[in-house]
Task: structure prediction
Amino acid sequence: VNLSGVFFVSQAAIPHLLASGGTIVNVASSAAFIGEAYAAAYCASKGGVVMLTKALALSWAEEGIRVNAVAPGYIETSINEAGRQDQAHYRRIAERTAFKRWGQPEDVAGAVAFLCMPASSYATGTVSSSMRAIVLPAASSRTQMSGSSDLAPSSAPGGRSNSASTLAELAPARTKPASARPPLTSSSASM
Result:
């Protein structure tokens, strides 16, 4: 759901976005840039959201659709409420952040709002670095290991190289005139 859900919702939104020149803001995670022990699938899926954001931004820019993302760190939400009951864990996470506290949903909402505003009308393919910068490396390399934010561009989203319908097939060809481009959506899209 973390990656394929973003892809399919983006595809479904195309008719509305074409009419309005709208904006997509995806939610990635600081885990897209910092590997976390025992969370390989989560980290990989959020890394995929980052690259999907960049690919869709380039593909849909000519249509006036901007695609950006935020990559929050540790945010206090109901999904992690049980884990936050352990005060030692709560303090350990807070100490690893620049402001020595967990983020609040409002912290993320502000970044999302900015990416939707006319003030950011030139931004596309951007992943909010201020959100991911708050997470500092853990003391133990087993907990986190810094990684590159540049994933291999030759691999297809979701790690499938033989996908029946790739983004390259769905996105407009940059060298073709608009009348010769394939449609932006495809009923055979798979991920």
Q: What stands out?
A: The two ends are 10 Å apart (CA to CA). The mean pLDDT is 76. The helical segments are 4-20, 40-60, 87-95, 105-116, 129-132, 167-170. DSSP finds six helices and five strands in the chain.
